[in-house]
# Entry
Amino acid sequence: MKVLMVASEVAPFARTGGLAEVTAALPAALRRMGHDVRVIMPFYRCAAQTELGVRKARKSAEVTLNGETHKGFLRQAALGDVPVYLVENREFFSRDYLYGTPEGDYPDNPRRFAFFCRSVLQFLKRMDFRPDVIHCHDWQTALVPIILRLEAADDPFFARTATVFTIHNLAYQGLFPAPAVAETGLPSALFTTEWLEYYGQLNLMKGAILTADLITTVSETYRREIMTPAQGCGLEGVLARRGDDLFGIVNGIDTDEWNPAADKRIFRNYSARALAGKAADKLELQRELGMPAAPSVPLIGMVSRLAEQKGIDLVLELLPRLAESELQFVLLGTGNACYLERLNSFRSKGAANISINLGFNDPLAPKIYAGSDLFLMPSRFEPCGLSQLIAMRYGTVPVVRHTGGLRDTVVDVTRHPREGTGFTFEDFTADACWEAIERALAGYRDRESWRRIMRRGMHRDVSWHNAAGRYETLYRMAADTRRG
Ligand code: ADP
# Structure
């Protein structure tokens, strides 16, 4: 099959979170299965700085939005044997951030991503690449299915092209004030509750949910959750209407990149059979972060965006308790300015057993996954979550809230002593989280059974192979609807 993956971020060209890892690893897995998969994304300033040889491809597009014409140029690179196209427009994409500064989103985001989506469709024609499926990710790419269904339905070039739209996080919907409709180039007639309007605003995600041939999200539990008022972020009705076309597929991780037996970023390699190296990684991490080198003190790690979603409020509430306990806690994260400020102020108190590291730090993250005994992920909601998968692969036992993808990937040790891979809690409260941490700390003291928990997590299949197979099946279903 011919598949075009459209995404606003793809690692290592541009990355703010898990999405970029998915849009890099899934195409590679599908390529291995023999499909002609290509990827297209914006050419941000950070993408120009990667060492992956982004070259000019001598193709251009012209997009008129709200009376102004913007020119785009195609660039090309490769990730292994996956061609990656990048859409260049300096005004829109040569900026310091992808979506906005720490103070807030870029106000011209509707125009930036409308330009991107419309350029993508033009470049397909210039390249004469007719995909069986265009697979779009999150609201930034929502205009692709919207345009193909509502504006270009009669375009013979796309007659046999189906669309699949993946919701990585329903909390980000591409919601803009009504005048933004003009910025997308769509006729104002589509600004009705039937298609794009949501309580007086433009909602791009809603449009994609209604117009894509098939919709997916990144775990089965999240699929169910987003069809309820509690977690549907207002789109539960729209999603339920398309419930038969909505599928949940848990993400994998790149098991070559995340492999404790071969990872060059960590101090000492180890595996489920030979765990000794992990103790060395722990000591090295303690040393690097300036914490007491204490082999038998349980070390809890956390690598996270600092966003409300991730349960940072619970962590802030728990910090004094963590500081008083016989354990160590390492946090790496960046994001929301108010969390940064509160974490900074806690850091200034100088608790010796707590290390707070603020920023996006690619070299430090693997050291935390490898050097920690436990991994904390108290998410308020979690579509899938990659961090807990990485943690388990590194023999670091996750303590997670029982929600979304965390529920589908972590089995509670207390309830399932023979199959358990982590410790889970239900209520979104600091007390419930603390209770799970205490259970984990008690488990940690029984070294033999702890190693069994570690090994079960390490042996779990977290590769992309299964997920890619499920996407392949869905692509065929979607393509069949086009062949009629
Ligand atoms: P989300 O995409 O919601 O942020 P995921 O768990 O799906 O959460 O993916 C997060 C990914 O980003 C993980 O690979 C994690 O290690 C990485 N990550 C998050 N914050 C940082 C950071 N501050 N520094 C380095 N890597 C980070």
Observations:
- The radius of gyration is 23 Å.
- Residues 17-19, 21, 303-305, 332-334, 360-362, 365, 384-387, 390 surround adenosine-5'-diphosphate (CB under 6 Å).
